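Form 12-C: Joint structure prediction
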Amino acid sequence: MNYKHILVLLEKDYREFFSSKAWIVAMVFPLFIAFIFGTVYREAENTKFKIAYLESEAETPLIKLLSAANIATKPYPSLTDARQALKRNDLDAVIYTNTKSENRFSLLIPGNEVKKGLLITNAINIVLIQQFSNESIPQVELEYAGKTIENRWLALPLWLIQIILTVCFLQNTATIAEEKSKKTLHSFLVSPASMSDYLVAKMLWNSAIGLASLILTIVLTGYKINLPNFLIFGLLGCLFFASLSLLIAIASPHALFARTLSTCVYFVSSLPLMAKDIDLGWKDILNILPTIQIFNGFEAAIMRNALQLNSLTTIISLLIQTGLMIWITALIYHQKKDF
Amino acid sequence: MSIISVENLTKEFGTRKAVDNISFNLAKGEILGLLGPNGAGKTTTMRMLMGLSKPSSGNIRLFGLDLNKNLKKIHPRIGVAFEKPNLFENLSGYQNLAIYCKLYQKPTSAIKPLLERMELADRANDPVKVYSKGMKQRILILRALIHEPELLFLDEPASGLDPVSSRIIWDYLKEQQQKGISIVLTSHDMEEVDELCNRIGFINHGRLIALAEPYVLKEKYGEKTLKVVYQDSSSIKEEVLSPTPEHFQYLQTLYQKKRVLSVHSQEATLGDIFRILSSQEN
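Section 2 - Result
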């Protein structure tokens, strides 16, 4: 390996990145996430809904519960009065006993306020779940968030992983596959730069872009995290998925195959995150997967937990997996008879 | 010492032999053209010579070094212009060349005169994606030569270019040859091969079936013909006659009847030889 060659290749990637508008992808994610967390989720969390109920139903358990919870309720003598108030925008919704069953309620909302309706339904469901704890209903473990952060930030690690998967993995695979099909890669293979120089430069550049995108997300959302946890797991995540993209791009026979395979790997990498909070006896096995390891690191950063000594095992595991990807990529390249 | 020395080079893809037991040498300052129909094995041979494809058997020595064991020593000494214009399309012509200058640790100050020489100086800062095919091809050749290699590989250097672009490239390649650079090129353009090459290797079905100077090939495989224009009963006719006793007899008869208007001798072209050799079976 020659660091001078790597620097030239990095400069080439830098120039191509900004001239090809690829930077837009790396910028769009942080802006989108900042919008989601700063506006949409915050609104959902902070909005106080005003819900009307019928005076005759004031003693039903649900109305009592809603009145006790953080939801503004107001009695109306009849459904017709409540409907008129809803029409005048004096209310957000009207709740009343369903005529078909005493145990069911209807929520009346204006037809053009679908989003608000979903938010109110969500708020009522949360009140119900909290009151009627039932073993058969999956519980939301609110205590793991402590009282230090708002609920919305619990979803942030998922978005950060999506950035890594998109910027470092999908985009990098597509770039290398394209360089292979356009044969721009071949012009380096007949130059003094070696394949190792090329692979290292690609991995470093994409990890740098991925990490920059992660940092930008945190800056734009304005969330205070544990920086060492965030940086270490962010960097390791970027390195791992950049190395995985090298393996797929180099091993694939053509660009379309590389893109298809990387899309499959993208979904498979996201799946363990969906199974993470499901109560399965064997789910601990998921902890060996890089996506879960990176997720756990981000979660610790979101919780503002300091970097723990037991994180060392995860860090070493991620480094080994990254090294393994690079080793397999190099092996495949050297075994290849034709490039 | 030969710049290239190839012995019994063979490349197999499964049961198919793409290159079959080829041997040849290339001297310093020589231009060798590899000719042959599509799929004959020219590009596969070139790829093996560049180190991009491993031979199934045989030996390649470049600058006296075994290619397989000395890629790192050999690559800085060669230049390659691929058939596909594999430039970085979003970067300018200057930036494309600057990357390779830095990779070969050459000063970027060399770029401007080269762009001027190839009549590209005024478009140097435009992105390559807006260049014409001829301009891209000129940048490709400059990129291959930017580090002053001793050996140049060109895959169809002037394929599909207009006569002006082709002429600029050919003149530049002749200049390089005079400086002592050896060149191996593949082409389907007979005019290009005739103009540039000292020797021509004709590959068909993976085999090198002819390797000689252009005039030798013309003499060996081509035949001179006579173009005869004569007065027929009511019109003027034209015929191309091969030099056989029957045709001479026929021509003599035309002379005796005073019907011959003109006779021109015609030399076989490389195009004729290409057709003759391409039609030869294994």
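Section 3 - Comments
DSSP finds ten helices and 13 strands in chain B. Residues 5 and 143 of chain B are 25 Å apart (CA to CA).
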